[in-house]
From TrEMBL:
Entry-linked PANTHER family: ANK_REP_REGION DOMAIN-CONTAINING PROTEIN, ANKYRIN REPEAT, PH AND SEC7 DOMAIN CONTAINING PROTEIN SECG-RELATED
InterPro entries, A to Z: Ankyrin_rpt, Ankyrin_rpt-contain_sf
Gene3D superfamilies attached to this UniProt entry: Ankyrin repeat-containing domain
Record carries keyword Hydrolase: no
Species of origin: Chrysochromulina tobinii
Superkingdom classification of source: Eukaryota
Protein name in UniProt: Ankyrin repeat domain-containing protein 29-like protein
């Protein structure tokens, strides 16, 4: 009778010994305990993110204090199951400043992006949480970090939404005013496109370029300036503000092969209020825009030597009578007696 001998691995013989079996049981137990600890930490991390999102400071402190400090780094890491969101990002999204501060004190990374590449500073700027922005800037985050894909900075996101307080804090933190996103749009361009005149005013006071064109980083850019996009969208306050800073009303457009004026752009889009104002103010100087200027801007113009004696041009319609103070060429000037009243 043929007998088949199957070779048995050495570790099987080793397990037949009582000591080997005991060692194997101990190894399995340690692996189980480690996996249980990791699972527990993962559950705590999710609970911490929820607590930060909801702004429950007591739960945030409880979860941090109940976890050994050696495990805080794991607890504050991104949660892959939730698109890489961290507790700091969740707190920045909802504007919970106290929770965000507690997490940063525990060692959380203030500039950790999620799976989409968004950082807490960007989401705070988009949602209008100026206090969160100030807290993150004190943690030395990159203020001009651009989002992957869109290339948007925190300043541009705040300008798009019209969050004036956020724009003010970002500019005070050293944000660059003339950085362009992936489409070539600057923060000032975005302000004028969406009609946020106060944000545009802050940018201009910070030295933003008034003539930087859309598509400056793209060869196929349309060449539109902040003034032109304000005319296209019909945002008269932005048009008035840009005009007070000396924005050019005629700009060569390489894509069209000719010079285009702001009046033409507004006329094509039927922005009649803008067209009327542009026509009425063709010869205006800087100080003629005093009604849309701040006191600081007027003082700056005066220090630069602006002519305070410059007169407004006289604009008359065809039906209006001639001004009696205007000299008419060819007219004879003779002294005529004043008319006498008949009694």
């Amino acid at each position: 009778m043929l007998r088949i001998i199957v070779p048995i691995p050495d570790f099987v013989w080793w397990l037949r010994k009582p000591l080997g079996f005991l060692l194997l049981a101990m190894m399995v137990r340690k692996l189980y305990q480690a996996s249980t600890a990791v699972t527990c930490l993962m559950k705590r991390r999710k609970a911490l993110i929820i607590a930060a999102r909801d702004g429950t400071l007591s739960n945030v402190k409880l979860l941090l204090s109940g976890t050994p400090s050696s495990d805080h780094a794991f607890l504050l890491q991104p949660e892959e199951a939730w698109q890489g969101v961290t507790a700091v990002y969740a707190a920045a999204l909802r504007g919970h400043t106290v929770c965000c501060k507690e997490l940063l004190l525990a060692g959380a990374e203030p500039d950790q992006p999620n799976a989409m590449g968004d950082v807490p500073l960007a989401i705070a700027a988009q949602e209008g949480h100026a206090a969160i922005i100030s807290l993150l800037l004190r943690s030395n985050v990159a203020v001009d970090r651009q989002a992957p894909g869109s290339g948007a900075t925190a300043l541009q996101l705040a300008c798009m939404q019209g969050h004036t307080a956020c724009v003010r804090v970002l500019l005070a933190g050293g944000a660059a005013t003339d950085t362009a996103n992936a489409d070539g749009n600057t923060a000032l361009f975005l302000c004028c496109e969406h009609g946020h005149v106060e944000c545009a005013r802050l940018l201009l006071e910070a030295g933003a370029s008034i003539e930087l064109r859309w598509g400056a980083n793209n060869a196929a850019g349309s060449g539109a300036t902040p003034l032109f996009i304000a005319c296209i969208m019909g945002h008269l306050p932005c048009v008035q503000l840009l005009s007070s800073y000396g924005a050019r009303r005629r700009v060569p457009i390489p894509a069209l092969g000719r010079v285009l004026s702001a009046e033409e752009v507004a006329t094509e889009r039927h922005k009649l209020e803008v067209v009327e104002w542009l026509q009425r103010t063709r010869s205006w100087g800087a100080l003629h825009h005093v009604e849309v200027m701040t006191v600081g801007r007027v003082r700056a113009l005066l220090r630069e030597g602006a002519d305070v004696m410059q007169r407004l041009p006289i604009v008359r319609s065809a039906e209006s009578p001639p001004d009696i103070c205007t000299e008419v060429p060819g007219a004879e000037h003779s002294a005529s007696p004043a008319p006498q009243l008949e009694i």
